[in-house]
Amino acid sequence: MPANPVGVAVVGCGTISDEYLRNLTSFPDLRVLFCADLDLERAKAQAARYGVPGAGGVAQAAEHPDVELVVNLTVPAAHAEVGTAAVAAGKSVWNEKPLALDTAAGRGLLAAAARAGLRVGCAPDTVLGAGLQTARRLIADGAIGEPQTALALMQDPGPERWHHDPEFLFARGAGPLFDMGPYYLSTLATLFGPADQVAALGRRGQRSRVVGAGPRAGTRFEVEVPTHVAALIGYARGPAATLVLSFDSPLRRHGFVEVTGTEATLSLADPNRFGGEVRLRRAGRDDWETIPAAGSGATRGLGVLDMARSIRAGLAHRASGELALHVLDTMEAVTRSIAAGTFERVATTFETPDALPAAWDPWAATID
Ligand SMILES: NC(=O)c1ccc[n+]([C@@H]2O[C@H](COP(=O)([O-])OP(=O)(O)OC[C@H]3O[C@@H](n4cnc5c(N)ncnc54)[C@H](O)[C@@H]3O)[C@@H](O)[C@H]2O)c1
C-alpha cells in the first residue's frame, strides 16, 4: 500500500463513470475520495457502489483538501467549465474528450493550469493501451520501414440506439468527428506527430433522431452536427491520412486503422479499445502476421494513473493537454473545411509522449 497515493475526485457520474470508477478504485497508487454530479443522487449512488467515501456537488469535489486530481467525466459542453473550476481550486484535471468545445476554451484551460503550476491530461487513454503501444513499438523498431500513409474508418448507425441521453452526442462538441475522432486522431498524431493541414466533406444523413434505449426511449431530438465526415489530413513530418467517421451507416465497422510504410502495412487494434491484436503485412507477401499485444490489460483510467504517477515523479504525463488541444484544433480545422470547402491549416503542436514500457503495471504500488 503506497504511503502517499494521489487523491482523486470523479466529477460526472453518468454512463462512462462505471468503467472509470471500477478501474480507478483498483489502482493502489490512487485513492478515489469523492464523486460529484449535478444530479446528487447519481453521485451518491456511484460513491456507494464503488466504496468512495464522499459524494456531493462539483464545488465540494474541487475544494476537498485531499483531492489533487479531478477526473472530469461530464458532457463536452461542461468540460472547460468544470476543468477550469478544478484548476481555480488548485487541482490538476483529467478531462474526458474532447478537451473543450473549441480550441479557444481548451487553450484557456491549459493556460490557467500552467499559471497555477497544475497539470491537464485528457482522454483518450486508449493510446496507452496494449494494442496501440505494441503498434507504436513495432513502428519505432522499423517493422514497416518509413511510415507514409494511413487509412482509418469508423462507420456506425449512431449511439442513440443504446445511450440513454444521446442528445449531446449529436450536438456541438460531439457527432462522429468530436466523439469518435479523438481516438483516431490521437492515434495518428502519436504515430505521425502534429498535423499541419486538413480538408474535409461533411453530411447530415437525418435532421432528427430518436432515443433508442432507457426511460426516455422514443423521444425525438434534433441533429446539430454533420454525421458523416470524410477528411484528408497532412502531417508536418510528411505522412498523409484519410479518415472517415460516420454515424450514417447501417453497417457497423469500428476500429479500422492501417498504417502503410515503405516495407510493410500495419493493421492496428481498434483505437477505441485498449487491447486487440496487431497484424503486419510485409511487402511481397500475401498473408498477415499476427503480433500479440504486449502490455497491461487495464482500460479507462490508465491515463489518470500515468498522470498521478508522473505528478509524484516530476515527469511529463503521456495523455497530455497539449496533445488533446492539437486534436481539438485538428477537428476544428476539419469543421472549418467542411463549411468553407477549403484546405485549412493546423497550427498547434505537441511533444510526442514516450511509449509506455511493456512491463508498466497499473496494479503495482509505485508511489512511496
Ligand atoms: N458513454 C461512453 O461510452 C463514453 C465512452 C468514452 C468517453 N465518453 C465521454 O465521457 C463523457 C461523459 O459521457 P457519458 O456517456 O458518461 O455521459 P452521460 O450523459 O451519461 O453522463 C454525464 C454526467 O455528467 C453530469 N454533468 C453534466 N454537466 C455537469 C456539470 N456541469 N457538473 C457536474 N456534472 C455534470 C450529468 O449529470 C451526467 O451524470 C463525454 O465527454 C463522452 O464523450 C463516453
Structural features, described:
Helix content is 30%, strand content 24%. It is α/β, with parallel strands linked by helices and 368 residues long. The strands form three sheets. Strands 16-15-14-13-7-12-11-8-17 form a nine-stranded mixed beta sheet. Helix 4 links the parallel strand 4 (69-72) and strand 5. It starts with 5 loop residues before the first strand and ends in a 23-residue tail after the last strand.
| Strands ordered across the widest β-sheet | 16-15-14-13-7-12-11-8-17
Q: Could you state the order of secondary-structure elements as H and E?
A: EHEHEHEHEHEHEHHEEEEEEEEEHHE
Number of helices: 10
Structural class: alpha/beta
Shape assignment: globular
Give the termini separation: 9 Å
Major sheet = 9 strands, mixed
Unreliable segments of 5+ consecutive residues: none
**Strand percentage, roughly?**
15-25%
Find the count of extended strands (DSSP E, 2+ residues).
Answer: 17
Provide mean pLDDT, rounded.
96
Q: Which helices and strands occur, and which strands form pairs?
A:
Elements: E1 6-11, H1 17-24, E2 30-36, H2 40-50, E3 54-56, H3 58-63, E4 69-72, H4 76-88, E5 92-95, H5 103-116, E6 120-122, H6 130-140, E7 147-155, H7 175-179, H8 181-192, E8 195-203, E9 208-210, E10 220-222, E11 228-235, E12 240-246, E13 253-261, E14 264-267, E15 278-282, E16 289-291, H9 302-313, H10 321-340, E17 344-345
Parallel strand pairs: 1-2, 1-4, 2-3, 4-5, 5-6, 7-12
Antiparallel strand pairs: 7-13, 8-11, 8-17, 9-10, 11-12, 13-14, 14-15, 15-16
The site of nicotinamide-adenine-dinucleotide (NAD) has 21 residues, from helix 4.
